[in-house]
Specification:
The protein has about 325 residues and is α/β, with parallel strands linked by helices. About 30% of the residues lie in helices and about 20% in strands. Helix 8 links the parallel strand 11 and strand 12 (about 210). The structure holds threonylcarbamoyladenylate and magnesium ion. Magnesium ion (MG) binds near residues 140, 141 and 149.
């Protein structure tokens, strides 16, 4: 299969995307977090193509993307005042809500579970696509399973070329990390995956504290919480100071990624890139740096430990899963 890349926000590209979806096909589209791989959420055969293209295990449920809150409410049961509060505060945007699923959401979307994840993305092209298709889209990140998520169209092409017919190119993602996943399906709200919407932002809106559920292998409720996930294809080590790394630099070539610290050329054996020392900007560029790191002629990727503090939580979380 040939994979076309089209500038996403044009009538021609959107018409082609809608044609593919109506015919039960799949395509990649930009969101503000990372690129998604979409199928009509109500069409089980189309959703099966998403699992196949990614090589995704059938027990890992997908997020359903909706045009607005009302469309999201149609996909769930038990929408309540808490849901209203967070949806009004953070949608459209990088927050996913887990709630009891509506009867017409197919089992394949929820991996057979009784809950469904829903989100209203803010990216202009995602919104244009949802507005034209008029139905919710089930979409995981647009990468092969166990690879780093794509934060630009080139990353999608690298991972899925030949496996999908179309990529809508909407430029680099402005958030750059996957959405925060908040489970509101019980009376005890919990964050299942950290992201740009922080724990304290959610607590401020709900007016009470919200737990963070660490992955329990006995109860894999959200595979996003799995200990190892989102990993580059080369071993990753985290370090405190550049000196620590350089003292121990082994014989082989390495990649070095820092936050803020700008270094002079170190050695021919070191491929080096500095990310911003500000969490929003660093998140936006992190996956690009990791995709770049994978392509370098080097054996190990060394990444500086980010600062402490909540604004760095999501970055620290993703890095900890790469070890
Ligand atoms: O930002 C994002 O969320 C991106 C864009 C494309 O929207 N999507 C994304 O999808 O990251 P994916 O499939 O890579 O991650 C979805 C996460 C997984 O950790 C999955 O286990 C969790 O959401 N999830 C989906 N449905 C769930 C459910 N019913 N209960 C608990 N976790 C669920
Ligand atoms: Mg993913």
């Amino acid at each position: 299969m040939k994979t076309a890349v089209m500038h996403g926000n044009t009538p021609r590209a959107l018409a082609e995307a809608v044609r593919i979806l109506k015919a039960g096909g799949i395509l990649a589209f930009p969101s503000e977090t990372v690129y998604g791989l979409a199928a009509d959420a109500k069409n089980s055969e189309a959703v099966a193509k998403v699992f196949a293209a990614k090589g995704r295990p059938a027990n890992n449920p997908l997020i359903v993307h909706c045009y607005d809150q009302s469309a999201a409410q149609d996909c769930v049961k038990g929408w309540n005042a808490r849901c209203d509060a967070v949806a009004q505060a953070f949608w459209p945007g990088p927050l996913t809500l887990v709630l009891a699923k509506a009867d017409d959401i197919p089992d394949i979307v929820t991996a057979g579970g009784t809950t469904v994840a829903v989100r209203v993305p803010s990216h202009i092209t995602a919104r244009a696509l949802l507005a034209r298709y008029k139905k919710p889209l089930a979409a995981p990140s647009a990468n092969r399973s166990n690879e780093i998520s794509p934060s630009c169209a080139e990353h999608v092409l690298k991972s899925l070329e030949g496996r999908i017919p179309l990529i809508l190119d909407g430029g680099p993602c402005t958030v750059g990390l996957e959405s925060t996943v908040l489970d509101l399906s019980s009376s005890n709200p919990r964050i299942l995956r950290q992201g740009a919407i922080s724990q304290s932002q959610i607590e401020a809106v709900l007016g009470h504290s919200v737990g963070l559920t660490n992955f329990d292998p006995q109860n894999p409720r959200s595979p996003g919480m799995m200990q190892r996930h989102y990993a580059p294809s080369k071993p990753v080590h985290l370090f405190d100071t550049v000196d620590d790394v350089l003292e121990g630099v082994p014989n082989g070539k390495i990649v070095l990624i820092t936050f803020g610290e700008s270094l002079a050329k170190i050695s021919d054996k070191v491929r080096y890139r500095a990310l911003p020392d500000e969490p929003t900007a660093a998140a936006r560029q992190l996956y690009k740096a990791l995709h770049w790191a994978e392509e370098q002629d080097a054996e190990i990727i060394y990444i500086q430990k980010p600062n402490r503090g909540e604004p760095w939580d999501a970055i620290r979380d993703r890095l900890s899963r790469m070890l």
